[in-house]
Amino acid sequence: MKTIFSPDQLLHAPTKEISDGKLVPANEIPSRAEIVLEHIKKAQFGEVLAPNDFSLDPILKVHDADYVTFLLDFWQLWLAEGRTEEEVFPFVWPVHGLRHDIVPDQIDGKLGFYSFDAGTPMGAHTWTAARKSAETALTGADLLLSGDNSAFALCRPPGHHAHRRLYGGYCFLNNAAIAAQHLRDQGVGKVTIFDVDYHHGNGTQAIFYDRADVQFLSIHADPKVEFPYYLGHANERGLKEGAGYNHNYPLPHGTSWVEWAEAMEDACRSIEKFAPDVIIVSLGMDLYEKDPISKFKLKTDDFSRIGARIARLGKPTLFVMEGGYAVGDLGTNCTKALSGYLDTVTVGS
Ligand code: OKP
Ligand code: ZN
Hints:
Elements: E1 2-4, E2 16-19, E3 22-25, H1 30-43, E4 48-49, H2 57-60, H3 65-80, H4 107-113, H5 126-145, E5 150-153, H6 175-185, E6 191-195, H7 202-207, E7 214-221, E8 246-251, H8 257-274, E9 278-283, H9 300-311, E10 317-321, H10 327-344
Parallel strand pairs: 1-4, 1-5, 5-10, 6-7, 6-9, 7-8, 9-10
Antiparallel strand pairs: 2-3
The structure holds {5-[(3-aminopropyl)amino]pentyl}boronic acid and zinc ion.
{5-[(3-aminopropyl)amino]pentyl}boronic acid (OKP) binds next to loops.
């Protein structure tokens, strides 16, 4: 299994975030990717490749042009308004009852217009890192298209909370969704995105909610008590042609392997029934018992079991990294998931 990563993904380096009503040290930091890379190299799963360059087209298939332009131009607009802070937070949003049809000219208005939380700082190099992260996922998708049976896109910043035209939850571009759409555009018939991150993949769900060609399944902490709060309930099953192709498994705080695995079995039955040509795993390691922002109780060895169960689905599989904030154990947990997959996989390489 090859891994894709670019050091440019480290350029987005927030120091603080707003969480639970206060300013705290940032959790989504460059060392997350560095420790995973170090462990991947030691594990010798295969080559580590730089992502290929892509035009903006595959990103624009998933995200609206005005949103991408905003991300791209953001730092220049910020400086042009004479602002000097190195990391920037939105603080006002067009919530229910306010207008959504006029994009403000002023930068604070734009920030709120294109975001859904205050926990996701932007800086001078956020766009560069986010674009590389998306290209890392796209390169992984291309490896599957050229015959590899699996690949690991070491994405950072993560992607699964990013909507068509909203950033939030540390995410700017939806890496998994961009890879899935790219696979579809290159002739792959059906794609499953299986999101095992502790948080609901609200962005991915929303992007494919009315589609039958991309199945979405997410096991996560119940949004009644956990971020991202406003999406991820069990009765969200998809719309129009997409009805029946969206599956949410909200689980309570304190969930450990047995209950989590039960949800996973149900999800795997739905995946088998859908019979995708490719599976994309939104691989979050924040299920871990020691994760500083999460409240599930999975242990290091449980990540091997997750990887092994995915291998038994027997489909070409792209792993796309999402969350995981217990940095000290993140490399181990990630390589456990991938080695669990590799030790079990039967077809191809
Ligand atoms: C991103 B990913 C709640 C704080 C929530 C945002 C979490 C984003 C997670 N106590 N902060 O899904 O790992
Ligand atoms: Zn998460």
